[in-house]
Design goal:
Number of helices: 1
Shape: globular
Number of domains: 1
CATH class: Mainly Beta
Number of strands: 20
Helix content: under 10%
Strand content: over 45%
């Protein structure tokens, strides 16, 4: 592998929630050309806790129900020497067969997700990359770094990450860009700009110092401005494995609190162990600005210092030519400090919350176009906040048809 190839094997400007793989993203810009492909399917789900936000002793607590989940999806990929386009869209609905006892609970909730990735090579040295994602669903996947627990209503999340990369010499390159993000789950929006230098240290390794400035806002006292100073390493472990490390400091300026500095760290791994087994993982520790308002007793508090550790691991193993096993685990730990009472003078801090989500399943290719799958998903949440403790088990079986 020569230096020029090494400089572009993981051309990332930044990795995070900007693309359809969320925090699992490890810089793979390679798409196989494929015509538009449609998939229609449905699954039947047994959920033993359809209202995790319900408190013990209230209607809807630990309520069980079957649900039906029909959906349709489309995927299109095209590639030319100059431009690569990858588009995906999925729409569905979750219909509970039993009406909930919880007042105001909907028995039907929509679900939609779409992504659009574009890579345009304007010259041998210059390229433009745009990664866009949007979802409207009850529980955004933990891998997107926006959800700590299940909400009571569907939330919309969207992100657009755009950057320009330039190869200055065989061993030096850079990425400069901006990101826009919004999340209706806590009515927050952000914008950021970033610049990353890329120095080829060896045919397999790239050193990536960078700077990012972001602002989170929603008209709340916890609105913040953040400066990220980081140094990273992208290392190709083998032809089928890559790891990306990035760490440094996060300097925060919060509207209603003193400025502070905290560590920032993220890592992403993508590996194909052999022809049968593939795995991906991520970890991120940072101060976050979502879900900042929590209730303690009868009062709401807004927390300006929310440190979050997110870890995820997922893998697939081909058991037989037509049978694949898959599974994964997510862990989210959050500490809450610098809390101020909304509309009052009280303060709070020292609260913690932890969530573990695990799943395992089988996928069978019944015919060239027909696929069946079954999944077991278990979630356990523990929190210092009242009404945030719950456990949940979901069993699902489904079938899909592609054409």
């Amino acid at each position: 592998m020569n230096y020029k190839t090494a400089l572009t094997f993981a051309a990332v400007g930044s990795f995070g929630v900007a693309c359809s793989q969320g925090l699992f993203y490890s810089g793979d810009n390679t798409f196989e050309r494929a015509p538009i492909r449609w998939t229609a399917g449905a699954s039947l789900v047994l959920d033993n806790n359809i209202n995790p936000s319900a408190v013990a002793g209230t209607p809807g607590y630990n309520e069980e129900s079957w649900s039906l989940n029909p959906n349709v999806a489309a995927k299109f990929t095209t590639k030319s020497p100059q431009t690569t386009i990858d588009f995906y869209a999925r729409a569905g609905v979750n219909y509970y067969l039993t009406e909930s006892d919880l007042a105001g609970a909907d028995d039907t909730t929509p679900s939609a997700r779409t992504s659009f990735d574009l890579i345009h090579r304007m010259s041998e040295r210059l390229r433009f990359t745009s990664r866009n994602f949007a979802s409207h669903e009850m529980e955004p996947e933990y891998a997107y770094g926006v959800s700590n627990q299940r909400g009571s209503d569907p939330a919309t999340f969207w992100s657009s990450d755009n950057s320009v990369g330039y190869t200055w010499t065989e061993r030096v390159g850079s990425y400069t860009g901006f990101n826009l993000t919004g999340y209706t789950g806590s009515e927050r929006q952000s914008w950021s700009i970033f610049h990353q230098m890329r120095f080829v240290a060896s045919p397999r390794s790239i050193i990536t110092p960078g700077y990012r400035y972001s602002e989170w806002g929603g008209g709340d006292p916890s609105d913040s401005q953040n400066h990220y100073w980081t140094v990273g390493l992208e290392h190709r472990l083998s032809l089928t494995s890559i790891v990306i490390l990035n760490g440094g400091i996060q300097v925060r300026e919060v509207d209603a609190a003193d400025s502070g500095t905290s560590p920032y760290f993220e890592v992403a791994l993508n590996t194909r162990v052999n022809t049968s087994f593939t795995a991906r993982g991520f970890a991120r520790y940072s101060a976050e600005d979502l879900d900042t308002i929590r209730r303690i007793g009868t009062a709401d508090f807004e927390f300006s210092d929310q440190q979050v550790l997110r870890v995820g691991l997922t893998g697939e193993y081909i058991l037989m030519p037509r049978l694949t096993g898959f599974g994964g685990v997510d862990y989210v730990f959050t500490s809450f400090e610098a809390g101020n009472q909304v509309g009052g003078s009280l303060s709070a801090g020292g609260q913690e919350e932890a969530l573990v989500n695990m799943y395992v399943g089988l996928r069978a290719k019944l015919t060239e176009q027909l696929t069946g799958d079954c999944t077991i998903n278990y979630t356990d949440s523990g929190s210092d906040f009242e009404g945030r403790d719950y456990d949940r088990l979901r069993l699902s079986a489904g079938v899909s048809y592609s054409f």
